[in-house]
């Protein structure tokens, strides 16, 4: 498969997964967390899909498209560890978390996701949903939408 085809499949799975998860949290109180602002594509999609939720977004740099710039009060700029600790101080209030850290080096991305998992767990509302491009540790893996191959995007419940 070409890298273009692979990227298209990843982005389609990401969008379908976010839409599916957003529809699942109707009965769960709480905010949304997007880990990895990047260009701001998933952040923009989440705020369009869930306009009544507060959407926190995290990244070590602010380098998104100008149209996707988050309000300063919702942007956690810094390394993931201290930013997750800061968010945890506000309580377990995340109903939906999207994990999109990583730079494409599989072994490093998997190790980082495993290292961050206990910190992510501390911000999750009981029963909250996580969707992730990398395997997370310590959560119950659940089946996502039928349209997404099980290894392409991963779904968990806190
Ligand atoms: C794949 S991009 C995110 C793409 C974004 N979700 C989008 O749709 O445009 C990953 C982002 O995560 C950030 N990142 C990766 N590891 C991080 C870490 N440990 N702490 C903070 N930011 C991190 C990078 O700076 C990068 O902008």
Automatic annotation (TrEMBL):
Keywords of this entry: Methyltransferase, Transferase
Does the keyword Transferase feature in the UniProt annotation? yes
Q: Which domain of life is it from?
A: Bacteria
Q: Does the keyword Transferase apply?
A: yes
The UniProt entry, under Pfam families, shows: Methyltransf_17
User: What would you give as a GO molecular function for this chain, any one?
Assistant: methyltransferase activity
InterPro entries named among the record's database cross-references: Methyltransf_put, SAM-dependent_MTases_sf
In the record, biological process GO terms are: methylation
Protein's UniProt name: S-adenosyl-L-methionine methyltransferase
Organism expressing this protein natively: Ruegeria halocynthiae
């Amino acid at each position: 498969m070409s890298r273009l085809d692979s990227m298209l499949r990843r982005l389609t799975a990401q969008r379908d997964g976010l839409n599916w998860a957003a529809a699942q949290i109707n009965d769960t109180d709480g905010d949304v967390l997007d880990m990895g602002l990047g260009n701001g594509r998933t952040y923009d999609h989440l705020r369009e899909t869930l306009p009544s939720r507060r959407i926190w977004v995290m990244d070590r740099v602010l380098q998104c498209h100008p149209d996707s710039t988050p309000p300063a009060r919702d942007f956690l700029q810094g390394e993931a560890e201290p930013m997750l600790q800061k968010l945890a101080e506000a309580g377990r209030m995340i109903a939906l978390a999207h994990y999109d850290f990583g730079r494409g080096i599989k072994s490093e991305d998997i190790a980082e996701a495993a290292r961050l998992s206990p910190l992510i767990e501390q911000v999750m509302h009981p029963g909250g949903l996580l969707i992730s491009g990398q395997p997370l540790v310590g959560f119950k893996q659940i089946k996502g939408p039928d349209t997404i191959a099980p290894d392409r995007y991963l779904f968990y419940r806190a």
